TrEMBL record:
Protein name: AA1-like domain-containing protein
Signal peptide start-end: 1-19
Key words of the record: Signal
Origin superkingdom: Eukaryota
Lineage of producing organism: Eukaryota, Fungi, Dikarya, Ascomycota, Pezizomycotina
Amino acid sequence: MKTSSITATFLALNGAAIAAPSESNIERDLKAFQLTKLTASLYDQSLPAYRIVNFDLNDPNNNVDTSCSSAWSGGMSGDYKFNCSNPNYQVNFPSLYDIEDIKLNVSVVNSKAFAPGEINGDKWKCENTGAEYPSKVCKWAGVYDLPIVLA
């Protein structure tokens, strides 16, 4: 009798483990945020130097389009968050000293979903403007896919 009770309990627990979706399956089902019109400008003629980053964000998981913009100075904390035009989305920069190599995070407010990324490489085209303001402008060629992870 004990054996059949133990076997039934084992089978029930094993079936529950198989039926429950794992976080890795949920993560694989999430589609990446898509960033378009991604630009960064450097205003370094007076201190503190500012970096302005702009982009449009598409969240295909929630069918949301929003614009994000930030004005980041060299002395700001990496924890500071900028709201996008839809305040359910925020962006912060763990590292934004060199606009040719930007680390950013996009997060969904009150959610475990966030998307870390590093913007650099061949699609990131930067040019000195020769003007006083801004002194350098960078643009991403195409769509920047920002994979989502769960915290």
